[in-house]
Amino acid sequence: xxxxxxxxxxxxxxxxxxxxxxxxxxxxxxxxxxxxxxxxxxxxxxxxxxxxxxxxxxxxxxxxxxxxxxxxxxxxxxxxxxxxxxxxxxxxxxxxxxxxxxxxxxxxxxxxxxxxxxxxxxxxxxxxxxxxxxxxxxxxxxxxxxxxxxxxxxxxxxxxxxxxxxxxxxxxxxxxxxxxxxxxxxxxxxxxxxxxxxxxxxxxxxxxxxxxxxxxxxxxxxxxxxxxxxxxxxxxxxxxxxxxxxxxxxxxxxxxxxxxxxxxxxxxxxxxxxxxxxxxxxxxxxxxxxxxxxxxxxxxxxxxxxxxxxxxxxxxxxxxxxxxxxxxxxxxxxxxxxxxxxxxxxxxxxxxxxxxxxxxxxxxxxxxxxxxxxxxxxxxxxxxxxxxxxxxxxxxxxxxxxxxxxxxxxxxxxxxxxxxxxxxxxxxxxxxxxxxxxxxxxxxxxxxxxxxxxxxxxxxxxxxxxxxxxxxxxxxxxxxxxxxxxxxxxxxxxxxxxxxxxxxxxxxxxxxxxxxxxxxxxxxxxxxxxxxxxxxxxxxxxxxxxxxxxxxxxxxxxxxxxxxxxxxxxxxxxxxxxxxxxxxxxxxxxxxxxxxxxxxxxxxxxxxxxxxxxxxxxxxxxxxxxxxxxxxxxxxxxxxxxxxxxxxxxxxxxxxxxxxxxxxxxxxxxxxxxxxxxxxxxxxxxxxxxxxxxxxxxxxxxxxxxxxxxxxxxxxxxxxxxxxxxxxxxxxxxxxxxxxxxxxxxxxxxxxxxxxxxxxxxxxxxxxxxxxxxxxxxxxxxxxxxxxxxxxxxxxxxxxxxxxxxxxxxxxxxxxxxxxxxxxxxxxxxxxxxxxxxxxxxxxxxxxxxxxxxxxxxxxxxxxxxxxxxxxxxxxxxxxxxx
Length: 883
What we know:
Blueprint: E1 44-56, E2 61-72, E3 79-82, E4 86-95, E5 101-102, E6 104-108, E7 113-117, E8 125-136, E9 143-150, E10 156-163, E11 184-192, E12 196-199, E13 203-210, E14 213-218, E15 231-234, E16 236-243, E17 246-253, H1 261-278, E18 286-292, E19 301-302, E20 307-311, H2 324-340, E21 348-349, H3 355-373, H4 382-394, H5 409-414, H6 419-435, H7 437-451, E22 455-456, H8 458-467, H9 473-482, E23 486-497, E24 500-510, E25 524-530, E26 536-540, E27 543-549, E28 554-555, E29 565-567, H10 570-578, H11 585-600, H12 606-615, H13 622-625, H14 628-638, H15 643-664, H16 676-690, H17 693-705, H18 718-727, H19 731-742, H20 747-756, H21 763-773, H22 783-793, H23 795-804, H24 806-810, H25 818-826, H26 832-845, H27 852-880
Parallel strand pairs: 1-11, 17-18, 18-20, 21-22, 23-29
Antiparallel strand pairs: 1-2, 2-8, 3-7, 4-5, 4-8, 6-7, 9-10, 11-14, 12-15, 13-14, 16-17, 19-20, 23-24, 24-27, 25-26, 25-28
Helix pairs in contact: 1-2, 2-3, 3-6, 4-6, 6-7, 6-9, 7-8, 8-9, 10-12, 11-12, 14-15, 14-16, 15-16, 16-18, 17-18, 19-20, 20-22, 21-22, 22-23, 25-27, 26-27
């Protein structure tokens, strides 16, 4: 069919002034402000889109038509919009009160643009641009994409969804696909009768067209950025609850809404809290969480306004195998995406330089609300782990500031990292601590009201909070967001005078690979206290003194709200180890993390950090005990290729951890504390991964029991037990796991079991897993997870395989993530040959702008090699001394 015969366009006869949605929002079209990056010519901006799509799911293609209200503010030779993987038919431009003019379309695939030429310059004024086009339905999460799955009756099905962040709305509709070009949207779709269509807004009308087709039209959206538009279609069910005046819902494949009850209940509880906190009620009539089968290797959920998309594995609960830790991640994911409905959707960063304004804030808010509504989970402790994830990147020369300069599409896609998310959250945590909760909240509310339905830059937030009473916050915030790196606060001396401790502090910079560089400078908000004493505050600039009530051991980052490392005299570390049980849980967690990192970085003996780990008593809280296995696992990895030393780590770990595991048992007990299930998973997983004989034997016993009892492994540790089995598998066991994956009753179970096949320690089996990933058996979005699992255990084998099958591999992952995939796959290596291999790949296939993730991986590998070479002997000696 030729494109010129697509369904009639919404063209000139349609009135320009369409019915306005009932949202309090400005109607003046706005492009990017002066100084804000844009990849489109300035001078034209949309105010409203009317879009109709007709998907052909069976043939993975669709047709579309759009009519865009455009305001031209200066004479332009052509109109340039974003477009990717689209082809074009009729194009017309109609001035208000004038005649339609036909145009031509010229696509620039590299720039991802289409230029509409109407034969003469376009004068300032208001126009309607009408375009007929066609596109492709992808099988990875970019643009409009298909997810194939098996329903509960064992039938093969296909559902469609959209994923537009960052630059993929242009794969669905020719558009001004940048965050500053906000507009309202009227979306409709011609779909097979009987399927459920989902959009940002509720369905406004549904018209039977005959022939098994129905046109579904959604209500007009609020003014929003193009990347927040959403469309979904399939054999779906919806369950709902009311949260005040808002209908919250979960949408799943038929028969699965019960597995989304946790997400539904979480949404209903979280929404009133956010309405109060932000001071602006959620403005849409409904808020759905839409669950899609399959997975992406690079994201779990997306904050489309009113229609959050989440992969099933991050939203659904299956009582047969969902762990307690996964349930908490589901709750936090719901909270994170809901926070975006304000921070990102209602108020949007002007350009991707300030992506952290979306992600860092949503991460911080999710932790905050989860802690408020689920206090038994002790969620604030997770901020220490998040801080460490950020510092792992931030301590290398390849780091970047929180606010970073973004120029290209690849740079946008690579900006979704631990600096954007976890450092963003850590900095906000520190700034809230400095401002105080009341001033911080007042500033956020002022910011929301001032910028609703608009775009902002980072400074708009800082000024709002400082205006609410947090004097001096702007200069601190600038230091931590406009420059990279980690302050190092060193205690030069500590003197007890008259019942008080006087600390002399200096500021430097913590680094893993550039200790000889001149350190950057920050205004560091220090909060310090002696153990049991009252906390005192200081803004440290270079050097300073702080006087603390009491004498004895002291903490320089009390409450762990500061984004900095604290280097103590060894005597204080030993004193803190002695007084460990007197510290709060978050200070215990932070002290372990900080000192371990300082040992890795060569700032103090690694044995000092291990002494702290050793000092954690079996009577510590379950949440703190759950941190200990990770440090022992890290030590085990650093002693790679020294089997004797690794054996001593296993022996020590068994002595330290087995009594704890014995006391709580392998299976849940009635009345056990809320943190015990998380501790149990950490203990079993780490001991099993190291090869602890008792835990491996228990895994084998349970696996063998499946022959007579199909439910023998059911429970929150099912995947943990199977991971141990998979790692130690022989051919017969591996084949049995494959059969289990193939015969799994749900796609959720199927995808997780297939991924385990890549975990085998035996390289012959991991090679079989890699070959399996290139077949259709696992499923289009599961294959990449198998390859990633091999990369975790055998990075060189995985990278070599991908290089030998590059095009096949790239078809298995999101288009937006291709430039970073190999870096992630090989980034955990400690082999110098991996550096050469990654660099050669980046030189051949990537631009200087798009190789940043590769360069970060190379820096991490080099640092890992240096660290292991330096620490193997002292670590081995430490464990030898513990026999």
